[in-house]
Amino acid sequence: MNKENVNFDNGAELDALFSQARAEQPALSDTNFTKVVVNRLPTDITRSQQRTLSFDLIAVVLALIGVYFFTQPLTLFTTLFNTLPGSVTLSPSVFLIALTTSLALSAGAWWAVEKKG
Amino acid sequence: MLKHNPKIDSLDDAVLVELAVADNNQTAYAALVERHQSNLRYSMRQLSNWNEALADDLTQEAFIQAFKELHRFRKQAQFSSWLYRIGYNVFLQHSRRKQLKTELLDEHQAETHASNSSPPHEDQLHKKVAALLAQLSPERRSVLHLFLHRQNTQKEISVIMGIPLGTVKTHIARGRLELQAGLKAWPNTVCLNNHE
Predict the structure, then answer these.
(1) B142: how many CB neighbours lie within 10 A of its CB?
(2) Domain extents for chain B?
(3) pLDDT digits (tens, 9 = 90+) for B5-54
């Protein structure tokens, strides 16, 4: 039996302990673990995401084509521009509404990216 | 039954990721799992106070999440670091979900699982290190594991864990002090069995 005595007095001993643990790290590979992981993998996850993305892109392109042919883009832009208010008074209620809207949009974006994706 | 494919096994991580994403190639992903499971399982054991069953569950979850997020992996990054970050997040989510009082619960679980695991003398050193790390908060525990065990630089840890460099430095400075204090509280001399 070969025993190594280690005194833990300062930082060097801490490093020595971790160094020894690193040197003696066990190999924990086993085929069964890999098999369990592979069996639990969702099927077609990547493909379905790509398909969803493709549908989104097609929808956007079709919408843009529709807007181009069935409306007058310049008129639409002018109309949209005219709807913007000339000035904004930042009252507490307006501030609260803006803050709430901003938070809701952020939460929605986060949910879309983190949960749905 | 998973069969080893020498061609697949010899490919780089980045190529295997590409294959797994483009062709939904599970054999390629199985090769990644085979290649990286040992390190991640060990890290999860260190983070979970050597709770082997919990660590393996978290590792499996990490690999499954990694598979779902594989298209987000950037070739410039190291797959092992990217995978560790996912594993750490899985561990953190678990800790928060269970509202773990990590030290106490982990200790209890470690004792529970110790009986049906590998012979105690083989893991004694690693269990002691894990028990020492269990004194720290989950984030600090992970930083110290990366710094002292995996020997990542402070900057690498900052990137892997997605936290500011200053926070990493603080964790290392305070974590080391906490670990040293923890060591002093132990018996003065600890016998580490190398070979029996």
Answers:
(1) 28
(2) 11-185
(3) 777 777 889 999 988 888 778 889 999 999 999 999 999 999 999 999 99
For chain A, how many structural domains are there in total?
Answer: 1
What H or E segment, with its residue span, contains residue B183?
A: helix B165-185
Task: Find the domain containing A59 and state its range.
Answer: 45-81
Pairing of strands A2-7, B189-195: antiparallel
Q: Phi/psi of residue A5, each to 5°?
A: -95, 130
Q: A34 and B34 in contact by Cβ < 8 A?
A: yes
Dihedrals phi, psi of B191, to nearest 5 degrees: -90, 125
Residue spans of alpha helices (H) in B51-153: 52-68, 79-97, 102-114, 120-133, 138-144
What's the rounded Cα separation, in Å, for the pair B195 and A15? Answer: 21
The distance between the two most distant Cα atoms of chain A, rounded to a whole number of Å, is 89
Of the candidates B1, B21, B151, which has its C-beta nearest A46's C-beta? B21
Number of C-beta neighbours around residue B16 at 10 A = 22
- A46 touching B (Cβ < 8 Å): yes
B117-170 residue pLDDT tens = 555 566 889 999 999 999 999 999 999 999 999 999 999 999 999 999 999 999
Question: Tokens 């630089």 identify what position?
Answer: B153
CATH number for the domain running over B11-185: 1.20.140.160
Please check whether residue A39 lies inside any domain of the structure: no
ipTM of the complex: 0.78
Q: Is A90 on the interface with B (CB under 8 A)?
A: no
CB contact under 8 A, A40 and B71: no
Nearest CA to B86 out of B57, B103, B65 is that of: B65
Does residue A58 lie in a domain region? yes
Q: Is A13 exposed, middle or buried (0-12, 13-18, 19+ CB in 10 A)?
A: middle
Token pair of B13 as six digits: 């991580």
